[in-house]
Amino acid sequence: MRLICKLAALVVLGSAIFYFWPKEKKTFESKPLLKYSFPTLRETVFLPDGIWVDKDKFYFWVWGKKVSGKINIPQGQGPFPVVIMIRGYVDREIYRPGIGTQRAAEVFAQNGYMTLAPDFLGYGESDMPPNNSLEERFLTPVTILQLIASLKNLHQINPDKIYLWAHSNGGQIALSVLEISGRNFPAVLWAPVSKPFPYSILYYTDEYEDYGKALRKVLAAFDVQYDADEFSVHKFYNWIQAPIQIHQGMADELVPLKWSQELEQNLKKAGKEVKLYVYENADHNLQTGWNLAVERSLNWFSRH
C-alpha cells in the first residue's frame, strides 16, 4: 500500500513539473519579444563580459554579438568616472563612429571623464542585429545595460561613478536603462524622445517613403501578442532612482518642447529629482545654447 502511495505521489509530482515547466518555456517560444519587456529585463541578471580597447575604439559582447564604439580617455592614470554617451537615430548610410556624441565627449574627457559611445548593432564594426525591426530597437537598452555590467572588466574605469548622457532617441534609451536597472546613474538628456511606445516611433513615420505603412503592420501584429505598455518608458517612472537633467531647444523641429515639459512634470509627480533647461533659439542639436548646455551638464555630473 505504501509503495502504491509513493508511486502515486511521484506521478502527481511528475505531472506538476511537466505541466508548469513547458508552459513557461512555451510562453517565451510563442512570444520571443517578451524577454525585452521592462518587467522581464528588470529580473534579468547582466553579468560582466568581454570588453577591450584598441586605440580610440572599444568593443564588447552583448548576448553573443560584438558591439563597437568610440572611446575618449582623459589625461592621467585614473581610475576615471565614465560617461556613457547614447546617440540618437542616424541612417546607416551616413553613420560614422562618434556621430552625435563626439563633440560633447571631447569636452567631458578634457574635464576628467572617460566617455564611451557605443555604435549599437548594425553600425560601425558591430555585428548585424536580428532581422526584426522591433527586436533591434528593444536591444538598444540591453546593449547599454550589458556595457554597464562589463565596465568592471575595463582598466582605468571607476565602476562606482557612472553617468549617462543622451540625445534625441538616445534619451528614450537612457530612460529605459534607468527604469530597468533602478540604479543611480545621474543622467543628462538633450532633446529626449520621451513619448510612450509605439507613438514615439510612429510620430516620425512621415519621413518614411511609405509614410509608415509597413511599420504600422508590424506594430499591429505586435499588439495582438504583447502589451505595448510593458515596453514603454511612461509606465515605469517610479522605478527611476537617478537625478535627471533635461535640455530642450524651443526651435527644435524634431522633439517638441511640450514633450520635455511633460517629462519633467511626470518625473516630479513620481517624486524624482529633475531639472529642465529651455533654450529660446536652440534647435534639435542645441545650437546657440550648446556651450551653456555642456557647462550645465558638467556641473550636474560634478554635483552628483
Question: Which features does this protein show?
Answer:
19% strand; single chain; 2 domains; Rossmann fold; disordered N terminus; 9 helices; globular; alpha/beta; 304 residues; 9 strands
How do the strands line up in the largest sheet? 1-2-3-5-4-6-7-8-9
N-to-C CA distance: 70 Å
Rg measurement, Å: 22 Å
Number of helices: 9
CATH architecture classification name of the largest domain: 3-Layer(aba) Sandwich
**What fraction, in percent, of the residue positions are helical?**
25-40%
Count of β-strands = 9
Q: Specify the overall morphology.
A: globular
Q: Biggest β-sheet: count, sense, barrel?
A: 9 strands, mixed
Characterization of this structure:
- This protein folds into 2 domains: 1-30; 35-303, Rossmann fold (3-Layer(aba) Sandwich), CATH 3.40.50.
- Helix 4 crosses helix 5.
- The protein has a 9-stranded mixed β-sheet with strand order 1-2-3-5-4-6-7-8-9, sandwiched between helices.
- Helix content is 39%, strand content 19%.
- The chain contains 9 helices and 9 strands.
- The chain is globular and about 55 Å long.
- It is an alpha/beta fold and 304 residues long.
Strand-helix topology:
Elements lengths: L1 H29 L7 H5 L8 E4 L2 E6 L2 E8 L7 E7 L15 H9 L3 E5 L14 H18 L6 E11 L1 H13 L5 E4 L8 H4 L10 H13 L18 E6 L7 H13 L4 E6 L10 H14 L1
Helix pairs in contact: 4-5
Q: TL;DR?
A:
Helix 4 packs across helix 5 (169-181).
